[in-house]
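[Automated response] Your request has been received and processed.

Submitted sequence:
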Amino acid sequence: MRKYLWPSSGGPNASVRPPGFASQRGDRASPGAARPSSRRGPRTAAILPFPTNQPATEAVENAGFSPATWLWAAGFAIAAYVFSLPQLALTVPETGLHLISIPMGLLAAVLIVRPRNEAPIYGLIYAAISLGFALRADGVGFALAKVALETGQTFLVVCMLFHFFFHRFQEPMMVAAWAVAALALTAFSAFLMLVAASLLPMTQSEYAFELASNPWMAWRYWWLGNACTYLAVAGPIATLINLRHRLTLLVTTPGDDRRKFFGGAAALLVVSLIAFPINDMSWVGLPAEVAVATHLLPVPFAMAMATRFRANGASVAILIFTLIAAVSVVGPNQNANWPGPVCPVTPTQTLLLVTTITCMVLSSISRQLKMALNEALKASEMKSRFIAMLHHELRTPLNAILGFSELMRLQSVRALDDALGPIENIHASGQPCWR
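Generated structure:
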């Protein structure tokens, strides 16, 4: 069983490390994988990458990368290129500042779910694609610095996640601590980006495009945008990849859970489209205070999904809410739906971060409650078995005692006259226990 970036939906082995960035190689975990004996867990692979009865697969893996590696690399390259296109990049209009960076989120996700020896491949692919698009608008110096900082920041975030948080990620406080650590790291990285922009030569047009002519606003966008990328994009994607079997079971098994899952996702989608319209909805003419209030409508629906379906529900809810909000704020109809003089990027990023962290914590708490309920049911079952076994063990000798006392009561020998009183007491006291 793998361990996930988001709290998993239960199970006694849910906290075992995945064969991702912290493992040496391999595509799947061994069925016999065990949890590390220490609380922190080792810094190397805690599980075998393949079952020991697959020598052919092991030989191929030792010889080089498996075919799955190249399929993952090709898929990542295509997805990163597509979402880097100007038509699909979620950037603030007329600037190069991202509300969220989907390619960087995809890089973090593949680093989490894939083996560690494949990390350089994904890093090089991301750097090449990002540099190719950055050189079209930036100077060479700042483009190299920005891509290097983004790539290094992503690797550092994933390393920090594996080494300091995975071994206790089932605890709600550690989930919150992970969010705070990600916010601190992205804030420092955004400051380094600002330093690089001030030291490297840039033309006036490049300065206006990359920093929107306001360095501290650019720092704020870089900070919150990168934090949203890791928490609201990379985390849910990695969780859904690792939990794909449970998600498939949930959506394909008829029953009340499937109806509630699809119903909750559909309700969240509708409410998110109302709160953050993608099409031109200026004809509705909502007052400003009502429009602001509607932005909070998706939050309770996302929390309900996280509480009811734990990791799967939280991941699906956050992805739906994040993508719709981002497209609404920086999409083609943002001028019609957001007529104010300033694009509401920072409030949207803050709302996404607060919703994401809350859903993560609720998912972890729900998982702990589920595990506590399972332990209580197991203890109750063990108590019932013990009582049944004890009752059986008592009935066997008690049956002999009662039978012997019954025979003694029936005897008419004079020698037993004095013992009839105690014999009656034995028989009367044992009858309730025997029944």
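Summary generated for your ticket: The CA atoms of residues 180 and 213 lie 29 Å apart. Residues 1-63 have pLDDT under 50 and may be disordered.
If you did not submit this request, please reply to this message.
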